[in-house]
Design brief:
There is one protein chain. The protein has one domain: Rossmann fold (3-Layer(aba) Sandwich), CATH 3.40.50. The protein is globular, with a radius of gyration of 17 Å. The strands form two sheets. Strands 3-4-2-5-6-7-8-10 form an eight-stranded mixed sheet. The protein contains nine helices and ten strands. The longest helix has 21 residues.
Length: about 220
């Protein structure tokens, strides 16, 4: 007799596996899941529909939510979860001014745990033909060399001071600071009902020349 697995069965199985994983293993597992979802289609991303997309979106959301709950309040674990989010954001973004073959630079301001976890996550990875670097810039004058720029909550004042200039640099800005997306940042991480979620300011993304996939937008709280 042939066993048939429903979409719900597959999701429950993924959920059980994720619960048993350490944060660092979860990061690499979620990266692999997202890579497989895109590996057979290298064309420009378009709005998707149907049960296949719903399942992919739900599994991604579930993976992120389970990991956020599992790590609790430990700073190191939270750093690994945030690093996973940052990599996934880059996976579903396109930079208008990124030359072919250029290295994609993640810049982390004010959070060594996130920087360390992200460096471990992207080590040896290639994203759409781009090698990946992680930096922790101390001088705002070096932000021009960043493609994804993450501000820890306590460092969002630096973003506020230079928001107008940053908005013209073709940089994907991310922070877990409250109100970051309303202040002109592109992606804001926040906790809702014990799960890590994210909001996207689509107008800020357009001004920055960063195109975000409909797959990512479908999981976000949209801010304008």
């Amino acid at each position: 007799m042939t066993m048939r697995w429903s979409a719900a069965d597959r999701v429950r199985g993924q959920k059980n596996v994720l619960r048993r994983m350490s944060p660092s293993r979860w990061v690499r597992s979620s990266v692999g899941l997202l890579r497989r979802s895109n590996s057979h289609d290298q064309r420009p991303l378009r709005p998707a529909s149907g049960r296949g997309f719903v399942l992919i979106a739900f599994v991604i959301a579930l993976a992120m939510g389970v990991a956020a709950r599992a790590v609790g309040a430990a700073d190191r674990s939270q750093g690994a979860v945030k690093a996973g989010f940052l990599y996934n954001f880059a996976k579903f973004a396109e930079w208008r001014a990124l030359p072919s073959g250029a290295r994609l630079v993640f810049c982390i301001v004010g959070d060594d745990d996130v920087a360390t976890a992200l460096a471990e996550t992207v080590d040896g990875q290639i994203l759409d033909g781009h090698g990946l670097d992680v930096r922790s810039p101390q001088d705002s004058r070096t932000w021009r060399g960043c493609h994804l720029l993450y501000f820890a909550d306590r460092e969002t004042r630096q973003f506020g001071a230079g928001a107008n200039e940053i908005g013209t640099l073709w940089v994907l800005t991310v922070s877990d600071g409250k109100g970051f997306s309303q202040a002109g940042g592109i992606i804001e991480l926040f906790i809702d009902d014990g799960r890590m979620r994210f909001a996207i300011n689509v107008d800020a993304a357009e001004r920055a020349g960063v195109r975000l996939s409909s797959r990512l937008l479908g999981l976000a709280k949209i801010v304008r």
